[in-house]
Amino acid sequence: MQRSLKVYLVLMAIAAPVLIASAAVQPPPPSDDEVNAIAHQLYCPVCENVPLDVCPTQACAQWRATIRDKLAQGWSEAQIKDYFVEQYGERVLATPPARGLNWLVYVLPPAAFLAGAFVLYRAFRSGGQNSEPLVPTAPDADGDPYVARLEEELRRRS
Amino acid sequence: MLANLGYFSLVLTFVAALYGAGAAAYGAVRRRPALVESARHAMLLTWPLVTLASLSIIALLVGRHYEVKYVAAVTSNAMPTYLKVTALWGGQAGSLVFWSWLLSAFATAASLRRWERDREFLPWVIVVTMITLAFFISLVIFFENPFQRLWQTLDGRQVSALFQPSGTIPLFPTDGQGLNPLLRHPGMVIHPPMLYLGFVSFVIPYAFAIAALVTRRTDDRWIRITRRWTLVAWLFLSLGLILGGRWAYDVLGWGGYWGWDPVEIAAFMPWLTGTAFLHSVMIQEKRGMLKHWNMLLIILTYSLVIFGTFLTRSGVLSSVHAFAQSAIGPMFFGFIGLTFVVSVSLLMNRWGELRGENHLGSVFARESLFLLNNLLFMGILVVCFWGVLFPLISELFTGQKVTVGPPFYERATGPLWVGLLFLMGVAPLSAYGATSWRSLGRGLWKLLLLSLIVPAALYFSGVTLAGALIGYWLIGFVAIVTLVEFWRGALARHRRHAESLPLAFWRMAIRNRRRYGGYIIHLGVVLMAIGIIGIEMFQTETQGTLARGESLSLGRYTLTYESLAQFDTADGRNVARAVVQVSRDGRNLGDLYPRRDFYYASQQPMTIPGVRSSLQDDFYVLLVGWEPIAQEGATFKIYHNPAVNFVWMGGLIFIAATLLAAWPTREFDGLREAATARAVVARA
Amino acid sequence: MTDKSALEAVVPPRPVQWGVILVWVLVLGLLAVVGLGLIRTQQGNIGVGARAPDFQLTTFSGSTVDMADLGGKVVVVNFWASWCIPCEQEAVELETAHQQFKDQGVVFLGVNYVDTESEALAYLDRFGITYDNGPDLGTRISQAFRIRGVPETYIVGRDGRLAHVKIGPYESLSEIQTAVNASMEE
Q1: Rounded to an integer, what distance in angstroms lies between the CA atom of residue C180 and that of residue C186?
Q2: Which of B269, B404, B552 best probes binding to A when mutated, by most A CB atoms within 10 angstroms?
Q3: C contacts of B348 (beta carbons < 8 Å)
Q4: Where are the beta strands (DSSP E) in C5-88?
Q5: Do residues C38 and C62 share a domain?
Q6: Are C96 and C137 in contact (CB under 8 A)?
Q7: Which letter does DSSP use for residue B616 in this model?
Q8: Based on the domain organization, do C28 and C113 belong to the same domain?
Q9: Considering only CB atoms, which chain A residues are within 8 Å of B625?
Q10: Per-residue model confidence (pLDDT) at position B459
């Protein structure tokens, strides 16, 4: 009994603003740009790797119509995306939500990069101690080390 | 008849390639030069044979031999002749033959060089190229045979086989299905061959690297021999990628040129390792360091080339570019696994012999900066590789399909690209060996300050996006550094050799093509970066449904819908073509014709944009929808793409400069140059 | 293939055993993943004789059909979508077959693949389809059957194993009848 009352209250809380809004002024129908802004972040399984806003297939046109309907009903962007995920699975999102195994998507590349940077750092440390200047940097007649380097490089090139 | 001839020559090629590989290996191990020579002859035989096979396919395609399955699948009566010829690489089987043809041509070209100084490499180069060739030919012979004929069984089923199966009658269709409409674009006609050229020419440096490992000749000889091959491979790969981008921009109708599609990335990954390789081999040549790393890079590049081909052809990934699913996946997988494992084992076995001749000095020395450059390229590679692979992993372990789309790649690689831009500006100012941060900083700070003009000017003209300002600052920095390098080099030469400045400039660039070609490539990259930042950060779009005579505005542009016509064409399309008038600030700029083609045969729509292009921006119109009967209302999507033409201009400069860097120098020139340089130093 | 293993090369040679092991683990792990992915793709859709996957279908009318409750019956599972032109070819025939077989312990189920509810309902209405239809929520059912496109039809025999698979639309009513009859006899 109490539970159903709670549910009713929650429902009213959600519905009330919508009802009030629609009663007060008829909101303008959602524009194409509003639809596309959301569609751009979604991918339809029928045409893989093409964002929904530019996919020319019939299925995608229907999806865009759905977004328009939901917008007209006052749904938010997040609600619409959730709806699509529920209907068609997580693959509709441009990037996998960061939870569970999907964490790996975001964690591995930076981790690999840092590991590479660390290896490089160690190489610098161990190499730096016993390094000796190879290129003679003695200034030449003009006293311009740049020219000396240029000539040196020319010489070494052969 | 023609089909049998082509097939027979492929079988012969397979035998010759296998014999060549076997004889070369045996001859090298047993020290039998005669056997190696025989292997070389076998290798020389492969190119004419594959040429014959390719020519017979082309003859079948042009001759409307629709009784051949491949011909019926990729051509139709409505296609013009040039498209029929290029249909050679329009389908799976034909493109494998084309790949093999390129490989045999390159192998032949490599074997025709003068080998006196590097005899010991020859047999192993033959082994690597011929095994690769045999693999590709075997795919054609056993799995994807372009010469299979169509037959009809008595109960009406269609079967395909090379020779007449019992109980069938030959089938003679009068027309074929035709090439996928997306591929009927001039850009698409030359884009794949460029990519293949790039892919295939990377086999040659790899072959030499393996030869160097096997023969334990681990100095930089293999790098010097293959320097030009590598540059040429890289040239074609870059060209293929740029053309692919242009094709996407012109035909795919989504307002961009690069969508981070798995297949695009598959071609991009060898380019990344190839670019890293091009930079790091210089360190080995100059300082005798990074030998392991270079070996690893070329092995990776080769594996990624094969892996990229595998990804596009095995059906493992779904993508707009992918070929239809096919049985060759497992073969490819086996081949990649085998070559990769063998190469890496060989490298590990020779690890100790690849000791560097120098140690890393200062962090600010040029070799260190090159290593940082390599680290960044590898970082981008990891992002790409992981992004492509992850959907597979996810599906395997959770059963859930996921999409790893452009936002992931953009966010993950963005900082790395910024780092690369910065290095591109710093590295030319650094010197080899031990450089202190002071000496580097001395050359650096003025130019960094000077380049602040660029973001400052942009800021006052109304650009406030921090990312764009930083990007354009670095772009300005790289451009200034590169131009100053040119100026200083020319000035030094001008003083020293008493040459006029333009002559000094010209001689300097011509005499050291690799270095100054490289700098011009950097300038090309800078131009491309201007365009990329422009479209990535400042692209705007809008969409609207218009009645005839109504307008839609975006920024300073206004589009007015004038009319729309829908009609069938002779080549099996239904075309809806709109006429829209475009004006900027109220001034009429003329008409554009965005259209939607629907191909009946393949049931595929294709959106061709109407584009008004200028140096500063593109106005890009797509016809999204229309009311079919009255044609009164139509929906248009318009994009404003600022600076996108810099991408193409930068691309052109990039390619031209790579050509310059790869252009052969006569040995004589180099010797004379060196002699002069020595004399000058002695005098000093 | 990560840059870690690769950059090991930069360090002056030190044949650390664990480094070598790490490299091989990475290489082989990578190959294994690609190989498994390849096996998966090569498998194609579920074949005849395999156990049909268990699934629950929430129909458009709100009720739930559970495969587990349909044991002992022949179940015809048809994947379709309203945007799919070839699906229309077989829509009427499927309904006719449903009317004919519904009293013989044969259950028809329509799984609506990647579609929008309003369009799907309009399609069902247009072809007068009365058997249970529902959306493929989260594309879970289609992934379980590993379908490659629509339409595809899977007939599950009384023993819960696939008795018949049809890729693409049925050409005629008799083709459906033949398939269902054969599945009933097994």
Answers
A1: 10
A2: B404
A3: 20, 23
A4: 56-58, 64-66, 74-80
A5: no
A6: no
A7: S
A8: no
A9: 61
A10: 92
CB contact under 8 A, B392 and C34: yes
- Residue B678 reports pLDDT greater than 90: no
Write out chain C residues lying below 8 Å of A57, CB-based.
83
The percentage of chain B sitting over the pLDDT mark of 90, rounded to a whole number, equals 49
Domain of residue C116, residue span: 56-185
Amino acid, single-letter form, for residue B249: Y
Residue C151 preceded by cis peptide, ω within 30: yes
Q: Do C82 and A62 touch (CB under 8 A)?
A: yes
Output DSSP code: residue B22. H
Banded pLDDT at A16 (limits 50, 70, 90): very low
Q: B405, A104: Cβ pair inside 8 Å? A: no
Q: What domains are defined for chain A?
A: 28-94 (1.10.8.640), 101-157 (no CATH)
Question: CA of A144, closest CA in chain C: separation in Å?
Answer: 33
Please give the residue of chain C at the shortest CA–CA distance from A125.
C11
State whether C147 and C82 are in the same domain.
yes
Cβ <8 Å between A59 and C6: no
Chosen from A57, A63, A66, A87 to mutate, greatest number of chain C CBs within 10 A: A87
Same domain, C157 and C91: yes
What are the tens digits of pLDDT across the range B194-207?
Answer: 999 999 999 999 99
Domain ranges of chain B: 1-179, 545-645
Q: Is residue C31 part of a domain?
A: yes
Average pLDDT, chain C: 85
Residues B636-656, mean pLDDT to the nearest whole number = 94
Q: Which of B258, B360, B396 to mutate to test the interface with A (most CBs of A within 10 A)?
A: B360
Query: Among C2, C10, C116, whose Cβ lies nearest the Cβ of A65?
Result: C116
Domain membership of residue C48 (yes or no) is: no
Rounded distance between C-alpha atoms, residue C164 and residue C179, angstroms: 7
| HSE-CB for A15 with a 13 A CA cutoff | 6
Please indicate whether, in this complex, the C-beta atoms of B351 and C13 are within 8 angstroms of each other: yes
pLDDT reading at C37 higher than 90: no
Domain count, chain C: 2
Q: Tell me the pLDDT tens digit for each residue of A23-53.
A: 445 667 888 899 999 999 998 877 777 888 8
Nearest CA in chain A to C143: A89
CATH number at residue C181: 3.40.30.10
Strand pairing report for C106-112 and C74-80: parallel
Task: Tell me the average pLDDT across B257-279.
Answer: 92
SS (H, E, C) chain A: CHHHHHHHHHHHHHHHHHHHHHHHCCCCCCCHHHHHHHHCCEECCCCCCCEHHHCCCHHHHHHHHHHHHHHHCCCCHHHHHHHHHHHHCHHHECCCCCCHHHHHHHHHHHHHHHHHHHHHHHHHHHHHHCCCCCCCCCCCCCCCHHHHHHHHHHHHHC
Distance from the first to the final alpha carbon of chain B: 74
Class at the top of the CATH hierarchy for domain B1-179: mainly alpha
C110-132 pLDDT, tens digit each: 999 988 888 999 999 999 999 99
Check whether residue C94 and residue C176 sit in a common domain. yes
* CB spacing of A144 vs B400 below 8 angstroms: no
Question: What ipTM goes with this model?
Answer: 0.83
pLDDT classification of B40: cutoffs 50, 70, 90: very high
From A66, A86, A126, residue closest to C137, measured CB to CB: A86
Domain co-membership, C17 together with C90: no
**Do residues C79 and C162 share a domain?**
yes
Q: Please tell me which of the candidates C7, C114, C118 has its beta carbon nearest to residue A119.
A: C7
Q: Is residue C13 part of a domain?
A: yes
Query: Chain B closest CA to A96's CA: distance in Å?
Result: 6
Tokens describing residue B435: 């450089």
Q: Does the distance separating the beta carbons of C4 and A115 come in below 8 Å?
A: yes
Residues of C in contact with A126 (CB under 8 A): 11-12
Q: Select the more confidently predicted residue: B254 or C118.
A: C118
Q: Quick check: B318 and A140 CB within 8 A?
A: no
